[in-house]
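FAQ

Q: What does a record look like?
A: Structure on top, sequence underneath. For example:
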């Protein structure tokens, strides 16, 4: 009888583990800040001729070394035309929640479309997301205004939407931030509040959404993108050296998520 029980337990364990197969196809949705990390130090002429990037190089080396077949691609989202170069909480909410469905919205793929083609979907905001205005006391989920009260409603709606696709995983970058010369202290403090809210309240352990803590790497505990990581003191795009370092850190995090290395992922979020 004991032998039968042991066999039954073993079969159950095998069955559970079979559902934890690695997720092979990955897409990274981004604008300029994300593009910087994607390419890292790759020369612009090389990338135009070959499509090479630091993140893809990291994936290729990992696949060769570990005999895996993770595939990652990137996409500017949303495009400048026709939607417009806006990738803030309102825009993801607008495309993926308010206008959800099997048809593109203004030529942009909805989650219903993306989740059929990709196992892991990664998205982020560029640093203007940190230009956060003071709350009015009247939150509006359909407002484009950059206010914490609106961001929170839009993020809650996005989380609920992503939970509709339990067979997919989502990676969300914590917000990018400006250098000190390009943002007020009050705006920077509100961005930090948004960041802490995402990590400590919005984020849920055990669901299909994972945070990559870009804000932590950019600020190292301060309110602003550190000047030594910026293109220059008046430009909030990170420089090539920082991007090259982040490309490897980001690549490893994505593979940990896609490959179900849950302990590594949890450790990254809680650092």
């Amino acid at each position: 009888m004991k032998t039968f029980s042991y066999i039954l337990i073993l079969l159950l364990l095998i069955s559970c583990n079979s559902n934890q197969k690695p997720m092979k196809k990955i897409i990274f949705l981004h604008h300029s800040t994300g593009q910087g990390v994607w390419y890292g130090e790759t020369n612009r002429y090389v990338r135009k001729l070959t499509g090479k990037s630091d993140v893809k190089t990291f994936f290729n080396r990992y696949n060769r070394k570990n005999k895996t077949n993770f595939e990652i691609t990137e996409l500017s989202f949303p495009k400048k035309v026709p939607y417009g170069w806006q990738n803030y909480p309102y825009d993801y909410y607008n495309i993926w929640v308010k206008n959800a469905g099997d048809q593109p919205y203004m030529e942009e793929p909805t989650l219903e479309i993306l989740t059929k083609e990709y196992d892991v979907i990664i998205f982020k905001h560029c640093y203007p997301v940190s230009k956060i205005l003071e709350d009015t006391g009247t939150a509006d989920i359909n407002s484009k205004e950059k206010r914490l009260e609106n961001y929170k409603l839009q993020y809650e709606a996005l989380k609920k939407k992503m939970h509709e696709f339990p067979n997919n995983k989502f990676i969300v970058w914590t917000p990018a931030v400006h250098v000190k010369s390009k943002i007020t202290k009050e705006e920077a403090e509100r961005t930090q509040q948004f960041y802490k809210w995402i990590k400590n309240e919005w984020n849920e352990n055990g669901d299909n959404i994972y945070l990559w803590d870009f804000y932590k790497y950019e600020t190292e505990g301060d309110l602003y993108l550190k000047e030594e990581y910026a293109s220059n003191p008046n430009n909030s795009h990170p420089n090539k050296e920082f991007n090259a370092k982040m490309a490897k850190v980001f690549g490893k995090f994505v593979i940990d998520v896609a490959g179900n290395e849950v302990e590594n992922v949890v450790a990254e979020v809680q650092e």
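Q: Is there anything notable about this one?
A: Residues 1-19 have pLDDT under 50 and may be disordered.
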